[in-house]
Amino acid sequence: MAQALGEDLVLPSELQDDSSSLGSDSELSGPSPYRQADRYGFIGGNSAELGPGQPPADLIRQREMKWVEMTSHWEKTMSRRYKKVKMQCRKGIPSALRARCWPLLCGAQMCQKNNPGTYQELAVAPGDPQWMETIGRDLHRQFPLHEMFVSPQGHGQRGLLQVLKAYTLYRPEQGYCQAQGPVAAVLLMHLPPEEAFWCLVQICEVYLPGYYGPHMEAVQLDAEVFMALLRRLLPRVYKHLQQVGVGPLLYLPEWFLCLFTRSLPFPTVLRIWDAFLSEGAKVLFRVGLTLMRLALGTVEQRTACPGLLETLGALRAIPTSQLQEEAFMSQVHSVALSERDLQREIRIQLAHLPKSSPGPAPLPQARLPGAQAIFESQQLAGVRGSTKPEIPRIVVQPPEEPRPPRRKPQTRGKTFHGLLTRSRGPPIEGPSRSHRGSASFLDTRF
């Protein structure tokens, strides 16, 4: 299944657009001297200027200052002010700070700190010849219109080869999946190779476990979950897909496995990644539902797609004007899908999966729902693996048995001599209390 899905991830050249992040199978000998790169590095792209709805420069500068302040005290921010982090991620991380924020959000910085020298060892180690050949064939397909990946001898393709090879050595049981290529390429556009590698590890093992393995068991589970959500939230679109025979595996792997890098304009992809690294896989489902509504939400749109090919074409031909980052992400965040709803649907679909399906069973509990859960998990792991002495426990002793109160001796009507004799020894015989006027009483008193 992995090989079949991998072949479907390559889009034909006529569907490419310089302004988007779509890939290609064609090789480029080099950029034309008269073609310039846009602000994201795409040659001939039209993203050089800010599009409609973009925030002004002053607002961008204010957001940059907020992110600098939050990342300077990251543990305190995540412990006490995560809601602010989530809202700032939804507004979009400033381009100048994504290299600083992405590793913190996904936990890659902590992984790199806990594994010093690991990437350097993997980078210099020889790779598996089988995987190296497959990776080498896919290098030129990853963003061929980006200035980093134009030349086969450039630092972009060489860094991509090292990162993907390092992952096959780090997780030899999983190996290489073709969909990891565009994901690693986007990371390399913003990060050094070592940080990009650890971000890739976190995406494959924490955000989307079971996606990039040989069986892709989690992709099949999420495909069923997506259809169930589609049936509940967009019932007419779901009915149309059922009528024309469009199953979720015909479009969903390209969306989810590649994190929409081959399907949407690049500025929108970056905004999706900001929210995805903050809130987890829930964002992918929201984006998919939004695309379904934009492509097949009206009666006219569904009428124009009487068959399977027309429906798939409509999913890939959404007008670019409807995919602009600000307006599109506003619709994404308005989708009525919470983390609790997603987890409930996952449990339902997991119970309906056939027990005899080949490959391992999906483990949705291994997926962490975003940056806050990852931060708490790493903090807990750090406490368990700490070498610091344990804090002594406070032991509360039970209260002692209450003693009877000490009685004050009764001295009223008694002589001082009588008290002394009682304390020193047995009482001596003397006159009775009625003889207070006797000589012995007077002698004793004076």
Automatic annotation (TrEMBL):
Low complexity compositional bias, start-end: 18-33
Instruction: Specify the Rab-GAP TBC domain's residue ranges.
Output: 92-280
In the record, what terms sit under GO molecular function? Answer: GTPase activator activity; small GTPase binding
Give an example GO biological process: retrograde transport, endosome to Golgi
Annotated stretches, region: Disordered: 1-35, 381-446
Q: Which PROSITE patterns match?
A: TBC_RABGAP
Presence of keyword Nucleotidyltransferase: no
Record SMART domains: TBC
Recorded GO cellular component terms are:
cytosol; filopodium membrane
Q: Which SUPFAM superfamilies match?
A: Ypt/Rab-GAP domain of gyp1p
- Enumerate the Gene3D superfamilies for this protein: putative rabgap domain of human tbc1 domain family member 14 like domains, Ypt/Rab-GAP domain of gyp1p, domain 1, Ypt/Rab-GAP domain of gyp1p, domain 3
Q: Where is the composition biased (Basic residues)?
A: 405-415
| Keywords noted in UniProt | GTPase activation
Quaternary state and partners of this protein?
A: Interacts with both calcineurin and HRAS.
Role summary: Inhibits the Ras signaling pathway through its intrinsic Ras GTPase-activating protein (GAP) activity. Acts as a negative feedback inhibitor of the calcineurin signaling pathway that also mediates crosstalk between calcineurin and Ras.
Record protein name field:
Carabin
